[in-house]
């Protein structure tokens, strides 16, 4: 066993997290000890995000924080992920504290990079972002034992004008159904109850391998796996949502009645400038179709405000769209002017104060929408996935959990009292007694849990 201890910190999205977990598996297989305390480490790996300005700033901040430990116990600092792929030369030139950099397409070489930097070789390995998905790499999961993110594809074939991802992650490369099913079966055997399907665009899954969208086929196979209770689908592009997919969700006993649909905007001129393949009319049709087919489904979306050329009139129309569509969950980003993207050179860039003001206005509007939706749940009985024990007092135990309508980390929680101790990762029936803008309050019913 190698005596060096490695600390690995992953930033950004869950897709990036899975890369980090595979790097942990590689490092352990190579004989390294892993620690979750940088103070104990001799080698630190910071897996970065470089998607938008705020993510880049956080990544730089974490790299600098790790570099300060080189004054004490830390010997080597390696930077991996999207920021490495995008700004490797600038970082190497400006930050001599960095001993090695690994891009998104070569993270499977992390153990060799560690070996070389320990021999005082400064390493740079980038490119190869179009290579096939590395199926045989072992993951060391860092999420809760009872849930797991399952990456079904890498890369993206869309070329939205604001987005750098295709240049950092390459084109769409779907995993073979057999490989996804094998990983999901292994996760179920480890006690995982909830699978969260992720990709840059889950609804494009299989187009490259099977010459047609194959998400429905994959879902039907995943549903057969024993032990899995919930299957959640993230990152669905609206133009590929069809009746076949909706029928599969509606008939399923395991697929959550929840869809994450990042639409980014509602106005046709802005959607066209973004190179989004849809229109306001099509979006309204798709959302209406989903809700008609699956009554009660929870819809999440994300928006970008302050895109180049967005007028005040278009912003007001976006607000009316948000109010009309009444999304259950909604997040808003201010447009980030990213170099090497077509939108960065567009005329009529919107100033930062206007962007922030528009973001705040949308979020205030969404708060009132969400409050109304949440209050309608008072008195209902929901199946809750127990996530965390909070504390206990008198004869009650206090817990936090999620419903099928809540994805981990990004959505709300159900805070509830229970008459006895519960295990995390179990499902209990809860009657909702109160509601906030995003969270629910309730009381557990001490009886057999109802079905989905």
Write a brief structural summary.
With 452 residues, the protein is α/β, with parallel strands linked by helices. Helices cover 33% and strands 23% of the residues.
Task: Describe the model.
By secondary structure, the chain is α/β, with parallel strands linked by helices. Strand 3, helix 2 and strand 4 form a beta-alpha-beta unit. It is built from 13 helices and 19 strands. A six-stranded parallel β-sheet has the order 2-1-3-4-5-6, with helices on both faces. Strands 7-10-11-12-13-14 form a six-stranded parallel β-sheet.
Kindly, what is the distance between the CA atoms of the first and last residues, rounded to a whole number of angstroms?
47 Å
Query: Largest sheet at a glance?
Result: 6 strands, parallel
Oligomer: single chain
**Proportion of β residues?**
15-25%
Structural class: alpha/beta
Can you list the strand order of the major beta sheet? 2-1-3-4-5-6
* Morphology: globular
Radius of gyration equals 23 Å
Helix content: 25-40%
Tally of alpha and pi helices: 13
How many E-type strands? 19
| Average residue-wise pLDDT | 94
Uncertain segments of ≥5 residues (pLDDT<50)? none
Family: Belongs to the methylthiotransferase family. RimO subfamily.
EC number: 2.8.4.4
Subcellular location: Cytoplasm
Keywords: 4Fe-4S, Cytoplasm, Iron, Iron-sulfur, Metal-binding, Ribonucleoprotein, Ribosomal protein, S-adenosyl-L-methionine, Transferase
Main attributes?
452 residues; alpha/beta; 6-stranded parallel beta sheet; 13 helices; 23% strand; globular; iron
């Amino acid at each position: 066993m190698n005596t060096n201890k490695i600390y690995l910190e992953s930033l950004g999205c869950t897709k990036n997290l899975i890369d980090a977990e595979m790097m942990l598996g590689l490092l352990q297989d190579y004989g390294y000890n892993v620690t979750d305390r940088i103070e104990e480490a001799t080698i630190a790996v910071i897996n970065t995000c470089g998607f938008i300005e705020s993510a880049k700033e956080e990544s730089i901040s974490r790299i600098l924080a790790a570099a300060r430990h080189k004054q004490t116990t830390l010997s080597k600092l390696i930077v991996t992920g999207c920021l490495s792929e995008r700004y490797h030369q600038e970082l190497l030139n400006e930050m001599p504290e960095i001993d090695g950099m690994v891009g998104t397409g070569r993270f499977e070489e992390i153990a060799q990079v560690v070996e070389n930097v320990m021999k005082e070789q400064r390493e740079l390995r980038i490119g190869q972002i179009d290579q096939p998905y590395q199926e045989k790499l072992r993951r060391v999961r860092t999420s809760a034992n009872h849930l797991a993110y399952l990456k079904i594809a890498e890369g993206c074939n869309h070329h939205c004008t604001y987005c750098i991802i295709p240049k950092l992650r390459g084109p769409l490369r779907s995993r073979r159904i057999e490989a996804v099913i094998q990983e999901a079966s292994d996760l179920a055997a480890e006690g995982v109850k909830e699978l969260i399907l992720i990709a840059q665009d889950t609804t494009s899954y299989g187009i490259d391998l099977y010459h047609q969208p194959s998400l429905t086929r994959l879902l039907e196979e995943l549903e057969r796996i024993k032990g899995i209770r919930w299957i959640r689908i993230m990152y669905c592009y609206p133009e590929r949502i069809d009746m076949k997919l909706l029928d599969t969700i509606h008939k399923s006993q395991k697929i959550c009645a929840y869809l994450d649909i990042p639409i980014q905007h509602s106005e046709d001129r802005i959607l066209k400038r973004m190179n989004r393949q849809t229109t306001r009319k099509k979006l309204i049709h798709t959302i209406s179709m989903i809700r008609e087919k699956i009554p009660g489904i929870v819809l999440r979306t994300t928006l970008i405000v302050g895109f180049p050329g967005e007028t005040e009139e278009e912003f007001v129309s976006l607000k009316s769209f948000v109010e009309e569509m009444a999304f259950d969950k909604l997040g808003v980003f201010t447009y980030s002017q990213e170099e090497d993207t077509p939108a960065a050179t567009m005329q009529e860039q919107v100033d930062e104060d206007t962007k922030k003001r528009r973001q705040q206005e949308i979020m205030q509007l969404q708060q009132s929408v969400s409050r109304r939706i949440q209050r309608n749940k008072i008195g209902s009985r929901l199946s809750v996935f127990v996530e965390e024990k909070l504390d206990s007092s008198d004869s009650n135990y206090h817990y936090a959990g999620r419903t099928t309508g809540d994805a981990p980390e990004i959505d709300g929680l159900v805070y509830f009292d229970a008459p006895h101790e519960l295990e995390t990762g179990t499902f209990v029936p809860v009657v909702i007694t109160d509601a906030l803008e995003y969270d629910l309050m309730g009381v557990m019913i001490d009886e057999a849990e109802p079905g989905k």
